[in-house]
Amino acid sequence: MEYLIVFPKANLAIKAEKALLNSGLSVSVMPLPPEIDSGCGIALRVDEASLNDALNALELVTVYSREHTPGGYKYSKIGEFNGSSAVNP
Questions:
Q1: d(Cα 57, Cα 8) in Å, to the nearest integer?
Q2: In Å, what is the CA distance from 12 to each residue of 5, 40, 69?
Q3: What is the Cα 39 distance to its own chain's centre?
Q4: Using CA atoms, how far apart are residues 89 and 41, in angstroms rounded to an integer?
Q5: Distance between the two ends of the chain, CA-based, in angstroms?
Q6: Could you give the CA distance from residue 66 to residue 21 in angstroms, rounded to a whole number?
Q7: What pLDDT shows up at residue 86?
Q8: Which of 19, 33, 39, 40 fits a disulfide with 6 by CB distance 3.0 to 4.6 angstroms?
Q9: What is the predicted pLDDT for the residue at 20?
Q10: Which helix (H) or strand (E) holds 48?
Q11: In the prediction, which pLDDT does 66 show?
Q12: 8 A C-beta contact, residue 44 and residue 27
C-alpha cells in the first residue's frame, strides 16, 4: 500500500520533498487527487516502508492511504500527524 502526505501550503510540500530525499527515503511528488479535498494541491507519495520515517521527519501533515482497486484508486484518511504523534487519527 502507498500513502499520500498532504500539506496546507505548496512551499511546505517542496521543502518536505527535499528533506525526505536527502534522508534517503523513497518519495515522489504527485498532484493531489480530486477525491481529496484538502491541502495545497500537491502530495508526496511514500511506500509503507518509508511512512514512519517520513512522519518522524515532518511537522503537521495529513496522511491518506492509497489502495489500487479495479476501478482506479481508493483514498482513505489515516489522520493528522505532528512528527510521529497522531494529532487527529
A1: 16
A2: 11, 9, 30
A3: 10
A4: 21
A5: 18
A6: 21
A7: 54
A8: 39
A9: 94
A10: helix 48-57
A11: 95
A12: yes
pLDDT tens digit sequence for 44-58: 999 999 998 999 888
Cβ neighbours for 27, distance < 8 A, ≥ 6 positions apart: 17, 20, 21, 44, 45, 46, 50, 54
Query: What is the spatial distance between Cα 71 and Cα 89, in angstroms, rounded to a whole number?
Result: 27
Q: How far apart (Å, rounded) are the C-alpha atoms in residues 60 and 86?
A: 9
Decide yes or no: CATH 3.30.70 for domain 2-83. yes
Q: pLDDT tens across 4-19, in order?
A: 999 999 999 999 999 9
